[in-house]
Design a protein that fits this description.
The protein has 432 residues and is an alpha/beta fold. The chain has 14 helices and 16 strands. The chain folds into two domains: 2-76 and 324-431, Aspartate Aminotransferase, domain 1 (Alpha-Beta Complex); 81-319, Type I PLP-dependent aspartate aminotransferase-like (Major domain) (Aspartate Aminotransferase, domain 2, 3-Layer(aba) Sandwich), CATH 3.40.640.
């Protein structure tokens, strides 16, 4: 690790200088705190990006398997995006708005849609809707879920089954046990027990866990979730922001799910900050009087830049040219090739690791495949994570900083995937 750190510093003098400049007036030295999570003594600074590659300010080119942690899943610089974001906002709809809503309906099946600036906002808004319509104060989430920075979702279960703040949560406004029930993934009995309290307005969940490693649902799990939520009168909200890796309509379409609300975030804008939420026709009718009311602008739902002409143009440009069926027919086999390369190295060096795939998203873990978030979290090895990421970065391969995830875009090639396999295999050879 010392060798890798030294090589990184010696290879990135311009990034080092820019990082030093950033410390003068940027809190934590970066525009956003999670940018400190990259491997190495300082973040690599980007000069330009295109497709599945980018070049840093020191002239080093990288294969990008992070893609903005799904935000640039379409590849960098998508068709028509530059022209789309040349617009601004007038707080009035454009001709793109209805077309975007129609395309989201076609992909995910929800009847009516609205746009927000982030999936965090979309999740906050639909949780407000659920509490308003049900008169119930609490929500339910999955243990070790990820739904952005929504306060009520930054909660996990401790070793005694009590709801506590997720590690790293800064300044929670209240004890999360006051707002949230937390249940393990793939545990229908725990879900039934939590909803039986009668105080839950909605279950907000990813169809597969993604931000603690890819944890897939067991057979029959989603059918059980739908039966339990309906029996207890609880709205089911599916957050597809990461799981759109499964296909053009995410797991909702690929697996035939039947939610009341769908949230979809960053990838639909090709890297532009935009997200959306869709609801069933029944919910749309119930919400219509509220959203048309005199106080709609102070309802806790909105945002001056949400749904702007710029945002709708970005979504239209993205979804009309990428994340189409033909793209997934290329991306998913590449992800399979990536996972097979990792699995082959794991088998060759006889390490007790595993690899999992969800559509065009794949990830390796330092343990056998977990079935819930707590097991996945227990297997995190921060030192090993840091080594694997820095080893790859020093060899021109960028992985997602928070975990060992690779995302395949329409711009990736088999040669890109094979390069990762080569680098990953060499890392295991060095470790063993």
């Amino acid at each position: 690790m010392d060798d890798e750190r030294r090589h990184f510093v010696e290879s990135h003098p311009r990034s080092a200088g820019l990082a030093e400049s950033g410390r003068r007036h940027l809190l934590a030295g970066v525009p956003m705190p999670w940018m400190t999570r990259w491997p190495g003594a300082f973040p690599v600074h980007v000069a330009h990006a295109d497709g599945a590659r980018f070049v840093d300010v020191d002239g080093i080119e990288y294969v990008d398997f992070c893609l903005g942690d799904t935000g640039a899943m379409t590849g960098h610089g998508g068709d028509g995006l530059a022209e789309a974001v040349g617009r601004s906002t007038t707080m009035l709809p454009s001709e793109d708005a209805a077309l975007v809503a129609g395309e989201l309906h076609r992909r995910f099946g929800m009847s009516k849609w609205q746009l927000t600036t982030s999936a965090t906002d979309a999740n906050r808004f639909v949780l407000r809707f659920a509490r308003h319509l049900s008169g119930r104060p609490k929500i339910a989430v999955i243990d070790w879920c990820y739904h952005g920075s929504v306060d009520e979702t930054l909660a996990i279960l401790d070793d005694h089954g009590h709801v506590i703040s997720r590690p790293g949560s800064i300044g929670p406004q209240v004890d999360p046990a006051l707002t949230t029930h937390v249940v393990p993934f793939n545990d229908l009995h725990a879900l039934d027990a939590a909803l039986a309290h009668g105080d839950v307005a909605a279950l907000l969940m990813e169809p597969a866990l993604t931000n603690i490693g890819i944890v897939l649902p067991e057979p029959g799990y989603h059918a059980g979730v739908r039966e339990i939520t309906r029996r207890h009168g609880v709205l089911l909200i599916i957050d597809e922001t990461h799981t759109i890796s499964a296909g053009p309509g995410g797991c909702t379409r690929a697996w035939g799910l039947d939610p009341d609300i769908v949230v979809i975030g960053k990838p639909i804008g090709g890297g532009f900050p935009v997200a959306a939420y869709g609801v069933t026709e029944e919910l749309a009718v119930a919400l219509d009087p509220v959203l048309r009311g005199h106080d709609a602008d102070v309802s806790g739902v909105g945002g001056t830049l949400a749904g702007s002409a710029m945002a709708t143009a970005a979504v239209r440009a993205t979804l009309s040219t990428t994340l189409l069926d033909a793209d997934y027919e290329r991306m998913i086999p590449l992800a399979s090739r990536w996972a097979e390369g990792v699995a082959g190295a794991i088998e060759r060096f006889e390490v007790p690791w595993s690899v999992q795939q969800l559509g065009c998203r794949a990830e390796y873990w330092f343990c056998p495949l977990p079935t819930n978030g707590a097991d996945a979290a227990a297997a995190v090895d921060e030192d090993l994570d840091a080594f694997m990421h820095l080893w790859a970065l020093n060899r021109g391969v960028l992985m997602t900083p928070f975990h060992n995830m690779a995302l395949l875009s329409p711009s990736h090639t088999a040669a890109d995937v094979d390069r990762h396999t080569e680098v990953f295999t060499a890392a295991l050879a060095a470790l063993t």
